[in-house]
Design a protein that fits this description.
Blueprint lengths: L8 E5 L3 H13 L4 E6 L10 E5 H10 L1 H10 L1 E3 L2 E5 L2 E5 L4 E5 H15 L2 E4 L14 E4 L6 H5 L1 H4 L1 E15 L6 E8 L2 E11 L2 E8 L1 H6 L7 H11 L1 H4 L4 E2 L6 E8 L3 E2 L2 E3 L14 H18 L3 H31 L9 H9 L7 H7 L1 H19 L14 E3 L2 E3 L3 E3 L14 H12 L4 E8 L16 H17 L3 E7 L26 E2 L13 E2 L2 H20 L4 E6 L4 H6 L14 H4 L1 H13 L6 E6 L10 H13 L4 E5 L17 H11 L2 E5 L5 H9 L5 E4 L1 H5 L3 H8 L22
Parallel strand pairs: 1-2, 1-9, 2-8, 5-11, 9-17, 20-21, 20-29, 21-22, 22-25, 23-24, 25-26, 26-27, 27-28, 28-29
Antiparallel strand pairs: 3-7, 4-7, 5-6, 10-13, 10-14, 10-15, 11-12, 12-13, 16-17, 18-19
Helix pairs in contact: 1-4, 1-10, 2-3, 2-10, 3-4, 10-11, 13-14, 15-16, 17-20, 21-22
């Protein structure tokens, strides 16, 4: 699209792919403009061996500049397969569509294209400030991850650079890989991971990665490049099959995650690694840089004002790159914690690896490689049959496999999330709850969870909260439970809780977390810290207060059993009473109930033990926790795992892993499946079954989570509010037979039309 304003002089700072491609595209759209490019290094000086593009990226490059695309296409080595070498097996997955090429060759192609178009290039010339750019109408800063220009003008861009903990070194080899290849090799020093791919007929990239403690144990912190090569050649002697490794400034380093609050200032705009990075395990920084150039030129063509154009580039880019960076974050954390997955079966390990970023889902992978996903599904089916003792038909999707918890068998892995309805009077529920929970049970979910139900009148969040502290409550809840049991195959659980310092507030749709205008009741907490500046200060709990709350939970537990519920969950999350014991942000006690995680868990465990004794032995008992507070000084990952281990040792059957809502100034990182990594952490590190919750909306996500071992149950909230029959509908979409209630059987072969 032609640029809608006259740009007489354009300066590109940095001669990597981002700077070169920006210069090419801008010259194409501005033929009369003087386009200059300055690079601090020599023309043929580069770091790294190969770059990787997906088929989709190649399509984008073709649309942007057919001239350079033809030359790039002729130089690529293309492959469709990913090989995972793990535990003595090589598992191949096909249908992925990637291409690799020499980084130096790419630079040469882009430099030649610049010369062809008349871009003026100057090498071994450092430009680090706006003053050095003279009268340029537009300055594009693409001088890499260690951008001197960006740091010189940090007050403009507000950069944030975080060094990840793992160490890696970027090597090359003559071994001709015929697939993108992952190796996982352990020796006496620890676990090493390799990311390898061919980019020329006789040349491949070979990235070696490990934890810092492994790197130090191996003496690699003191090693020269030659010594690093010798160590890695010995470690991967079998895999290299006589081929040697090549060095190229092969220093061990930490991957830098780069983000900038602002992408432009005045007529200066950042491109490529100078503005963002994404871990090499998910994609190429080169791809992102070249797509930045495409987006920048598109924005310049759509907006008359330069400021509007650059603002559009930033807004669109933050959305595009933000999604990739979120996926890259999950992916890099998978590799940082690969030790966590080493006990998985090779098939499940490979599936977990391939879907690690959560961008590739079960159904997406099935379209690429139906044979591999069929093997994974069959493995999941066999494991579920063994665990539950039930017969599981072939072709059963992972989400429709059964799960046994003590004496309770769930037909599938779908859970209706406990969602507060704020529709009770003095704790007493009515017809709304019967319809709300009954419709979702007939909708086919394996487990329907009733909302947080409070153990006393003063334990409520709002006057509309459900309760289990009066005999009338038992009868009302029993009406719901009986309906679920009579008219569906679903099981029903309930969540017992105490609001703590977040109690005595208005209904959610009137004023969430705001104190009542009148009629407030007293609040309790481990420490006398108000939830917000509007909230009342809670009383610091005495030993007597703890005993009364514990006894309230025990009384309510017996009532829950009298009402006939199948499963009980205790609420240790979201900043409510028991959660505030766990978090250092809300527990400032100096007695035996504060300080270490063992002390902070002391009262919650005492309460849990009392409930476990009051709850039938054959019925499962679970706990919901917040695995992060999304705030500095909050509960640590180590403490979360330790707390989960303690619960497991105290006969907890399953942990419902949520996050946040501890403090009002939290800074959560939302996104698709944003809490699933916490569930995986707890499940694999603490060795206990988990439920995951948080922006689950598709059966592809649900199958991915179950097949990958990230959780045992998937908890969906909004999806079930939107569609009470979600489980039955997604079963139909997957060709899986789920019997409808007799009253609705006529719909079993119905195909809806929306247009």
């Amino acid at each position: 699209m032609p640029i809608s304003r006259k740009l007489d002089r354009i300066v590109c700072v940095g001669g990597g792919p981002g700077g070169l491609y920006s210069a090419i595209l801008l010259k194409l759209e501005n033929p009369s403009a003087k386009v200059e490019l300055f690079e601090r290094n020599r023309a043929n000086d580069t770091f790294g061996f190969g770059v990787v593009f997906s088929d989709k990226t190649m399509d984008n490059l073709a649309a942007a500049d057919e001239g350079s695309h033809r030359a790039i296409l002729a130089s690529f080595h293309h492959w469709d397969d990913i090989d995972t070498h793990f535990d003595g097996r090589v598992i191949k997955s096909t249908g992925h569509g990637f291409a690799g090429m020499s980084r130096q060759k790419l630079l040469t192609i882009l430099q030649n294209r610049c010369r062809e178009l008349g871009v003026e290039m100057s090498f071994e010339k450092e430009v680090s400030s706006l003053e050095e750019c003279g009268d340029a109408d537009l300055v594009i800063v693409a001088d890499g991850v260690n951008s001197v220009f960006r740091e010189r003008h940090a007050d403009w861009f507000s950069p944030k650079v975080v060094l990840r903990p793992n160490k890696f070194t970027w090597l090359g080899t003559s071994f001709p890989f015929d697939a993108f290849t992952f190796y996982f090799e352990e020796n006496e020093d620890g676990l090493f991971r390799v990311h390898a791919y061919r980019y020329e007929a006789d040349a491949s990239t070979f990235i070696v990665e490990c934890r810092e403690e492994t790197w130090r144990r191996a003496g690699l912190d003191q090693a020269s490049e030659d010594e690093t090569i010798a160590y890695c050649e010995k470690l991967f002697e079998k895999q290299l099959a006589g081929h040697r490794l090549r060095k190229n400034r092969s220093l061990w380093r930490n991957f830098p995650t780069v983000k900038n609050e602002h992408w432009f200032h005045g007529n200066v705009v950042l491109v490529g690694d100078a503005v963002h990075t994404a871990h090499f395990s998910i994609g190429s920084g080169t791809k992102l840089a070249m797509e930045d150039a495409i987006e920048l030129v598109r924005s310049l063509g759509e907006h008359e004002s330069l400021d509007d154009a650059l603002a559009s580039y930033e807004n669109e880019g933050k959305e595009r790159v933000g999604s990739i960076q979120r996926a890259a974050q999950v992916s890099l954390e998978w590799f940082e914690n690969t030790e966590r997955y080493m006990d998985l079966d090779p098939l499940q390990f490979t599936f977990s690896l391939l879907t690690r970023s959560l961008r590739v889902t079960h159904d997406n992978l099935e379209m690429r490689d139906p044979e591999l996903v069929g093997e994974v599904n069959d493995w999941v089916r066999r494991q579920a049959a063994k665990q539950s003792g039930a017969e599981v038909p072939k072709e059963t999707p992972p989400m429709f496999t059964p799960l046994r918890l003590r004496g309770l068998e769930l037909d599938n892995r779908v859970v209706v999330s406990p969602m507060c309805q704020y529709s009770a009077e003095d704790g007493l529920i009515g017809d709304w709850h019967l319809v709300h929970l009954g419709s979702r049970a007939t909708g086919g979910a394996g487990l329907v969870m009733a909302e947080m139900t409070d153990v006393s009148r003063d334990a409520r969040i709002t006057p509309g909260c459900a309760g289990m502290y009066d005999p009338k409550h038992v009868l009302a809840w029993k009406r719901v439970v009986d309906f679920v049991h009579e008219h569906s195959d679903s099981k029903i659980g309930i969540q017992l809780g105490h609001a703590g310092r977040k109690g005595s507030t208005k209904l959610m749709w009137i004023g969430p977390d705001e104190p009542l205008d009148d009629g407030n009741w007293p609040l309790l907490a481990p420490s006398p810290l108000a939830y917000s500046s509007k909230s009342q200060i809670p009383k610091e709990m005495s030993r007597g207060d703890m005993e009364r709350v514990r006894d309230d939970f025990v009384r309510s537990t017996r009532m829950v059993n009298d009402a006939g519920f199948d499963l009980l969950e205790l609420h240790f999350a979201h900043g409510y009473l028991l959660a505030t014991f766990l978090s250092p942000l809300t527990n400032h006690r100096t007695d035996e109930f504060g300080g270490s995680i063992e002390n902070r868990m002391r009262f919650p465990l005492e309460l849990f033990d009392a409930v476990r004794r009051a709850w039938p032995e054959d019925k499962p008992l679970g706990v919901r926790i917040s695995a992060t507070d999304w705030a500095p000084g909050g509960i640590s990952e180590t403490d979360v795992v330790e707390a989960a281990k303690m619960l497991r040792e105290h006969d907890c059957d399953i942990i419902d892993v949520s996050a946040g809502q501890t403090v009002p100034d939290q800074k959560p990182r939302y996104g698709r499946l944003f809490q699933t990594p916490f569930s995986e952490l707890v499940r694999l590190e603490a060795g206990i079954k988990t439920m995951t919750v948080g922006n689950l909306s598709s059966y592809g996500d649900t199958n991915s989570i179950i097949a990958g071992g990230r959780a045992d149950l998937c908890v969906l909230a909004r999806a079930h509010l939107y569609d009470p029959y979600w489980t039955r509908h997604v079963a139909n979409e997957q060709g899986h037979e789920v019997e409808w209630p007799a009253q609705y059987r006529s719909v079993q072969r119905y195909t809806p039309r929306f247009k």
